[in-house]
Design a protein that fits this description.
265 residues, mainly alpha, 14 helices
Length: 265
């Protein structure tokens, strides 16, 4: 098979994976009750985190926390739900088929995850435009809305952490522990709700996690230079994606050497 034919075959398979991912999402999370559940979670979560920031630092803390809560609203979708797109294959005994296909496993994971990326962006947008007029006022809300494309960058970087969580679950870690630990580490270390001071032990951890640098750019808005912060966020996303790739290769090697039973994975 020549290169053009191989490329067409790959693209056709990729489109099929994306289509199946959309259909699967509609079955598992596309009902009215599920959508209302997402909206309810967003409203209560963002309101709680915003009031927590106001309690800690007054009105300035309220604004600070609201912007952080808006960006963090995407995390439950792209971090806590994404591992299920692959780990569900393990109990079904179909993981080996994914590993033997013509599309790399990491690419399959990314293609299956696009629906959760959209869900995360919708959740953040809902938080901003539904609660923004109340929490910020129309002027500040529009300023944040103008910089909303930065949320796309932070959501993608958080998605890369979600993909890394997939690899940890595949090698035997408990899924609930992995995804919840990742989500709360991002919340605590990114400075989403309260600023992480220079002497805070969590600050160095936050530098290696997504959301923190992107939030600096989002809070700066479109009137201040944000390129460095956005670049930092993109680099963090790339590093987590690289770590995912390396862990998947290591896991595949363990299977080939018999360290992990192939009948399971």
């Amino acid at each position: 098979m020549n290169s053009p034919d191989a490329l067409r075959s790959f693209l056709a398979t990729a489109l099929r994976i994306c289509s199946l991912s959309r259909k699967d999402y509609r079955v598992t999370s596309g009902g009215i009750a599920a959508r209302l559940g997402i909206a309810t979670r967003v409203v209560f979560q963002v309101t709680f985190l915003t009031l927590l920031g106001q309690l800690a630092h007054g009105d300035s803390g309220k604004t600070y926390a609201f912007v952080g809560a808006v960006a963090f609203a995407a995390v439950p979708a792209v971090v806590t739900q994404v591992p299920a797109v692959i780990t569900a294959e393990v109990p079904q005994g179909t993981m080996y088929r994914l590993r033997l296909g013509n599309v790399p496993l990491l690419a399959i994971m990314m293609l299956r995850s696009w629906v959760y990326l959209v869900e995360g962006l919708v959740a953040s947008g809902l938080a901003l435009f539904l609660l923004g007029p109340v929490m910020l006022g129309h002027t500040d809300m529009l300023r944040v809305a103008a910089a909303f494309p930065i949320v796309l960058v932070t959501t993608v970087s958080c998605l890369c952490v979600g993909l890394f969580c997939c690899t940890l679950v595949l090698i035997g870690w408990d899924e609930g522990m992995v995804v919840n630990s990742a989500a709360y580490l991002i919340l605590l270390c990114s400075g989403a709700i309260v600023p992480a001071g220079s002497g805070n032990v969590l600050r160095p951890i936050g530098q290696a996690l997504p959301l923190g640098a992107g939030l600096q750019a989002l809070r700066a808005g479109v009137t201040n230079p944000v390129g460095t912060a956005v670049l930092h966020e993109a680099v963090v996303a790339a590093l987590w994606l690289l770590a995912t790739h390396l862990f998947l290769r290591l896991h595949a090697r363990r299977i080939r050497t018999g360290a992990v039973p192939e009948s399971i994975y």
